[in-house]
Amino acid sequence: MYAIVKISGRQYRVSRDEVIRVDRLKAEPGEELIVSDVMMISDGEQREIGSPHVPYRVCLEVIEHGRDRKQITRRFVRRGGMRRKRGYRRSYSMVKIKSIEQGE
User: Fold this and answer.
1) Where are the beta strands (DSSP E) in 1-104?
2) Domain total in the chain
3) pLDDT at residue 103 above 90?
4) What's the predicted TM-score (pTM) here?
């Protein structure tokens, strides 16, 4: 069984006991969250697609927070003598999917 859920404005395909990396959540490690933005649910044979949601919810637990490797962006103008180099590190949260259950 898997579900398509919307977490922090992005859609993820999740199944039970899976660990995924999402954008940073405002929750402490060890805290449990319930996501009710479930767009689709599938049990292998049947699919239920919502318009926009289905009456399921996903319970997840925040494992840890972290930051990705530095991403370097560069800008170069050929004859203008302009060069710019910037970098940033994206923050993320590792979450474990505890259960996918019916009920809004």
Assistant:
1) 2-7, 10-15, 19-23, 32-35, 38-42, 47-49, 56-67, 71-77, 82-88, 91-102
2) 1
3) no
4) 0.82
